[in-house]
């Protein structure tokens, strides 16, 4: 995996992925997603939430591109340790809040809103389809913000009231949601 753009562009990192319950977003899909985001947001102004953060792939990309307020959430201890170590190596500890915990509990207790939320849950997660509902029920997305969920073709969200588009990168699909106006 590598950081695609910004001040850490080209930086590679290799998580000790043996037996990890993570599925990092491919560089191809991440590059496509960030090409969309860069044309719609000023990263320096964003408050970002990275749910099921895994290796921290998305968090690093945002910080590399100027975002100074990222919250990373994952419950897997190995991933959290890796992200803490990588944050120290990149000297970005002041820009990332690392939360080890259950994503659904976090959503219920976050008590704040974010301009951009990304969720990269395990595709086989039994509760994957309620994630968009939980984002909006807990009012986590700020007005004008976007929520993007990564999933595979076994899931579809076109009928969700907050859905507005999706993009396909091979078998990786990003569904985009925003608050109702």
Describe the model:
- The protein is of the alpha/beta class and 181 residues long.
- Helix content is 27%, strand content 25%.
- The protein has a domain at 43-123 and 135-177: Vaccinia Virus protein VP39 (Rossmann fold), CATH 3.40.50.150.
- The chain has helices spanning 27-38, 57-64, 77-90, 103-109, 131-137, and strands at 47-51, 69-74, 96-100, 114-119, 141-151, 163-169, 172-177.
Entry keywords:
181 residues; single chain; seven-stranded mixed beta sheet; Rossmann fold; alpha/beta; 7 strands
Oligomer: single chain
Major β-sheet strand ordering: 3-2-1-4-5-7-6
* CATH architect. name of the domain at 43-123 and 135-177: 3-Layer(aba) Sandwich
Rg estimate, integer Å = 15 Å
Query: Mind telling me the CATH superfamily name of the domain at 43-123 and 135-177?
Result: Vaccinia Virus protein VP39
The SS-based structural class is alpha/beta
CATH level 3 topology of the domain at 43-123 and 135-177:
Rossmann fold
Unreliable spans: none
């Amino acid at each position: 995996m590598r950081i695609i753009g910004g001040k850490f562009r080209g930086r590679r990192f290799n998580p000790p992925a043996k037996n990890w319950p993570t599925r990092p977003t491919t560089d191809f899909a991440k590059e496509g997603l960030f090409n969309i985001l860069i044309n719609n947001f000023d990263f320096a102004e964003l408050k970002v939430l990275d749910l099921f953060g895994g290796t921290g792939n998305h968090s690093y990309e945002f910080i590399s591109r100027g975002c100074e307020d990222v919250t990373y959430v994952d419950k897997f201890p190995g991933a959290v340790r890796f992200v803490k170590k990588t944050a120290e190596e990149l000297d970005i500890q002041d820009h990332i809040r690392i939360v080890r915990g259950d994503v659904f509990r976090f959503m219920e207790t976050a008590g704040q809103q974010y301009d951009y939320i990304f969720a990269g849950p395990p595709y086989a997660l039994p509760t994957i389809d309620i994630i968009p509902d939980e984002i909006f029920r807990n009012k986590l997305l700020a007005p004008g913000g976007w929520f993007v969920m990564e999933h595979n073709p076994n899931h579809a969200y076109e009928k969700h009231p907050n859905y507005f588009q999706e993009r396909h990168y091979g078998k990786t699909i990003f569904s985009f949601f925003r608050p109702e106006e």
